[in-house]
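Changelog entry: the Putative Zn-dependent protease record was regenerated in this release. Current contents:
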Amino acid sequence: MAAGIALLLALGMLWAPAARAQGLIRDAEIEHALRQLVAPVATAAGFSASQLRVMVINDASLNAFVIDGRTIFVHSGLLLKLDSAEQVQGVLAHEMAHIANGHITRRMANLRGAQSAAGMGLLMSAALALSGNPQAAAGVAAGSSSSAQRLFFAHTRAEEASADQAGVRYMARAGLDPAAMVDVLEIFRGQEALSPGRQDPYVRTHPLTQDRLRAMRGFAAAYGGTAQANPAAEYWFNRAQGKLGAFMQNPSYTLRRIKPSDTSDSALMRRAIAYHRKPDAKAALREINTLAARRPSDGYIEELRGQILLESRDFGGAVRSYQRAVQLAPNEPLIQAGYGRSLLALDTADGTRRALSVLEQARARDPFDPRLLRDLAVAYARLGNNGMASLATAERYAVQGRFRDAAVHAERAAGLLPHGSSGALRAQDVLHTARAATQ
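Regenerated structure tokens:
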């Protein structure tokens, strides 16, 4: 890896323990929904929506932040707390403003040098640190954890003011109600009076004052009045929030919250997930089959049916559902990964060979999915290619920020794979970065 990720190395060394304790939530439907929400705001901000990604961190606290020029991280707790698509879009608009105004570039320009799986692991380690407690790693690479956090992540009040004003402009240009950004700030009102240990991380990285809230109300009033209802955005918000909540919250709680008379798409999906998690496969399939019949061209619903079948051990049915999901949503590597996983579950030589092909196609599109990389290692091991199995394992550990484990498997892969092959070169990349991160 080039010297361009030197800052990443420091951050990765400092916060790898926090990264291991946390994780990203990778779900094709939720990520698709967030792409639908971010697209109009990105266009209004002058970004290409295809170059931005919104990733969800599995953390119940409330936060959202950016640490490079193309990735916005949102905590699951914040997504579950917000009440509307426009509130989510307000959060995204504010974070895009930090990118557009150069707040990230000035402090963390070298982040853009991370290209390999190991580099992404370092990026994720730095990002996930904001969800955990980096105290144990204080002083390893960049001084005390609190001073490092202030240096690399905490925005100044001036930066927050400029991001607020720019974010409001983006919302207005996109035909969205800027008042939604005020609503988001109201959620955090009064938190600055709390001790740092009781504050949500959003307040620690995005200073909130009465002056800022008063100014935001003024911005919203000045730019408001042009908003238009957007049923499509609300639909995808409800699906994303509903799916996230159904998988993360107690299934009995989910079922109690849904009125028996509610037959909306979101309600059917949430019931299906809740019954599946109880587990009650028959009831889960009843709900998801009703939804699939209503939306026969929706690959994300077919993917969920495939997941329910796979985890209910109906492997043949899962393969059929995932195969159809891939046909309906051919550009979704996470759905391809699920298809490969269902083929592996058949535990046949033909199924494993087909799985390897599908999983390699998915990896080429998204090399940062740990579960995909684990399945890829299983497929290679079953087919007797231990070198590639070790490489996939090394890359999985690198993505998760487990650099010592990544180094062990990368060294093994480098010794087993032909010298100069693409696999051997990938192993060397992981090994180089993992060693640097653990020195």
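The first helix runs from residue 6 to 21.
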